[in-house]
Design brief:
With about 325 residues, this protein is an alpha/beta fold. Helix content is about 40%, strand content about 15%. It has one domain: 3-Layer(aba) Sandwich (Rossmann fold). The protein has a 7-stranded parallel beta sheet, with helices on both faces. A 3-stranded mixed beta sheet has the order 8-10-12. The chain has a two-stranded parallel sheet with strand order 6-14. The longest helix is centred in the middle third of the chain and has 20 residues. The chain is globular, with a radius of gyration of 20 Å. The protein starts with a helix and ends in a 10-residue tail after the last helix. The mean pLDDT is about 95. InterPro entries: Epimerase_deHydtase, NAD(P)-bd_dom_sf, NAD(P)_dehydrat-like.
């Protein structure tokens, strides 16, 4: 049972942090489906939000609101009168000072959504709230019932995972208290073409292997997913009878596999071939389940296509020098 198209066309939804990587694709998809979209950005006139105004349907159906996550009234102005809220805005940071901001921002969005009596909030969390747990047996399948261990995040100074975990837990507690229907998406590292002009943190993760900025790769694993699949998953979680949390990962790759894929597609760049860890055996990935999302009909774009499109986009946007063929 999804919302019929006529419903989508008549609905107004708010996307927080609309200028971001995931949010831009989400806004694009919502406009395509006929939603009226209110996007919150720090400054609607900032040239870095220009790409949103150029999206198909933006002229008729998109309005940008200047709002700050820490300013409740500015959020409320954007959310009041909306049927739903997609809360994607969150500082991607390893700064412990920013932890509090992430939590306050989440509280403000849920408060505003509760006052606006929205139908549902779809909250963009992270796989980082799920898997960071040193006590989990390697054979255990990581699913939506798993939570990252806050002490472990603190002790390893992984402030991003710490902040996202506390923010998500806060969101669940507040949604329960305020009687708001909340659904959460937990994507892995998101790749794919950029709509925005600036480079975001997840795409920088790929770029550093192409510029010569790093000479070696680390002995570690990472899950990846295409930004279009993440946008599509958000809309599905809004339109279908979804509940709880949804892990969103296409594949896990060891960094060695990542650099090998990059080298195969783009041999002209100085891609590292050596691991920085010459002592320990190659790390193994944890097992995870995306059954919940697949049951809603998500089919993932393969990771190799994802990586290829990311690099092509970096070239097209002028972030990467085009290879010179001699």
């Amino acid at each position: 049972m999804t919302l019929p198209a006529v419903v989508a066309a008549g609905q107004t939804v708010c996307v927080t942090g609309a200028g971001g990587f995931i949010a831009s694709w989400l806004v694009k998809l919502l406009l395509q489906k006929g939603y009226t979209v209110r996007g919150t950005v720090r400054n609607p006139d900032d040239p870095k939000n220009a790409h949103l105004k150029e999206l198909d349907g933006a002229e008729e159906k998109l309005r940008l609101y200047g709002a700050d996550l820490l300013d409740f009234e500015s959020l409320k102005a954007a959310i009041i009168g909306c049927d739903g809220v997609f809360h994607t805005a969150s500082p991607v940071t390893d700064d412990p000072e920013k932890v509090e901001e992430t939590i306050i921002g989440t509280k403000n969005v849920i408060m505003a959504a509760a006052e606006a009596k929205v139908r549902r909030i779809v909250f963009t969390s992270s796989i980082g709230t799920v898997y960071m747990n040193p006590n989990r047996s390697p054979d255990m399948i990581v699913d939506e019932s798993c939570w990252s261990d806050l002490d472990f995040c603190k002790n390893t100074k992984n402030w991003y995972c710490y902040a996202k975990t506390v923010a998500e837990q806060t969101a669940w507690a507040m949604a329960a208290e305020k009687g708001v229907d909340l659904v959460v998406l937990n994507p892995a590292l998101v790749l794919g073409p950029l709509l925005q002009a600036t480079i975001n943190a997840s795409v920088a993760h790929i770029m550093k292997y192409l510029t010569g900025a790093v000479k070696t790769y680390v002995n570690a694993f990472q899950g990846y997913v295409h930004v279009k699949d993440v946008a599509k998953a958000h809309v599905l979680l809004y339109e279908t009878p979804a509940f709880g949390r949804y892990i969103c990962v296409e594949t896990m790759l060891h960094r060695q596999e990542l650099v090998e894929i990059l080298a195969k597609f783009f041999p002209e760049y100085p891609i590292p071939t050596k691991c920085s860890d010459q002592v320990n055996p190659r790390k193994k990935p944890y097992k995870y389940s995306v059954k919940k999302l697949e049951e809603l009909g998500v089919e993932f774009i393969p990771v190799k296509q994802c990586i290829y499109e990311t690099v092509k986009s970096l070239q097209e946007k002028g972030h990467l020098p085009l290879p010179t063929h001699s």
